[in-house]
Amino acid sequence: MLRVTDPQAMAKTFAEAYMESARWQLERQANDVKRNKDALSGLGSLLTTFRDKQRELVAGGSMIQNTVTQSNDAFASVATTSGAKPGSYQFHVEQLATTHQLTIDVPSGIPAADAGSVKIKLADGSEFTVDLTAAKGEDGNVSAEELARVINSSSGASGNVHAAVIGGQLMLTSANTGADSKISFEIDSTSPLAGAFDGAVTISEAQNAKVKIGDPTNGKTIELQGNTLDSIEGLSITFRQVGSGTITVASDKEKTTESVKAFIDAYNELIDKLAELTRVGDAAKGDPGGPFSSDAGVRALVSQLRSELNKSVDGVKLYELGIDTDKKGKLVLDEKRFEQAFKASPDRFDKLFGDAQTGLVGNLGKALDGWLNEKNGQLKTRNESVAQAEKQLLAKQQEYDRRYQDVFERYTQEFTRLQVLQLQMDNTLDQIKNLFSTSKD
């Protein structure tokens, strides 16, 4: 006979047994939702990483990597940007662009209250007014230090003129180089500082850079406000010294090969991981397979990516450049054929790979966008479905908790009544035993 000693403990055991099937189904659904959510997160990271890698391949507007060399490394600094083309460029710098610098001897003993104001003007038309009465030292007189402070704090000074005190003299320096940065002053002749500003001494002229492109004798001369030349597509050249120099841009096979290898590695890693995600399981062995083993959408993505690799772009195919596909659909680089193709016609590489919007990279990007698009991509749609499933799962969990509590309370009441009944029966049995015991005596 079942003996009730702890109604709540027994109620818990019976309630769990009663709800076991519902609990198992809920746990299975929760595991499925979590597995799907984790798989989507992993897939998103995987696709994003590959998209970034292929964009890096053509980040400069070309998949061909260039090397820049100079006849004199001290002559200029060169940065390559999108569109740089192989070629050799000869320059002769007649003069560098410089800032305008001048010094002013500030006389002593001039009361700030009498100083008035000065308008500081630049050749490009910029100007600002400085209140000289604010340049008051502790003795009430104008000082070079106070003038520098007042000029630098004036509205309009920033980005135009900077003032400092060097060797007791006030020095003004234009913020920019070139003839347009020439500084001049407009001050009332009655100001006690008029003579100081009118007598300013130039120690560095405001001048443009003069650069001759091509032959030093017959080349074309251009003037620049600064020392940086940006008019050659893909190059930003900052001249450092007067003189002649040659800058050469050449295709770099080694760097280009490394970039292509990085692309191949990224693609092969993508294919390997997609294969694992779509791996078919073995029910007999308890192997569920990959989380997308029966997902037609993911398998279609794999097929689409492989299809793009086999397409011809502007009459060029991957295998013609020494990049083959093996039996597993992974890319393999034949370096000998790659080098031959590179030497014969490097422009074919750009035709095939294109940029972020065109060619192979652009086409692969469009395929990935079908999944990664933040507005209507498959990942967004699927993650929304997961979020809805989690919401439904939460509602089911709450319903399960409510039902479990009802069952637990019902069993608790029943076992409590049974315990009371058993105690009453025990008491009655004891009384009967005592009665028979008394009769014998």
Q: Describe it for me?
A:
A 5-stranded antiparallel sheet has the order 1-15-3-11-12. With 441 residues, it is an alpha+beta fold. The chain has helices at residues 7-18, 20-57, 144-153, 194-198, 253-277, 296-310, 335-344, 347-353, 359-372, 378-440; strands at residues 66-70, 76-80, 87-95, 101-104, 117-122, 127-131, 161-166, 169-174, 183-187, 201-204, 209-213, 220-224, 228-229, 235-239, 243-251, 323-325, 331-333. The protein folds into 3 domains: 1-65 and 252-441; 66-97 and 209-251, no CATH class; 101-204. A hairpin with a 2-residue loop joins β7 and β8. Belongs to the FliD family.
Total individual domains? 3
Task: State the helix count.
Answer: 10
Distance between the termini: 33 Å
What percent of residues adopt helix (DSSP H or I)?
40-55%
Give the overall silhouette. flat
Family: Belongs to the FliD family.
GO cellular component, one term: bacterial-type flagellum hook
Keywords: Bacterial flagellum, Cell projection, Cilium, Coiled coil, Flagellum, Secreted
Domain Flagellar hook-associated protein 2 C-terminal: 206-426
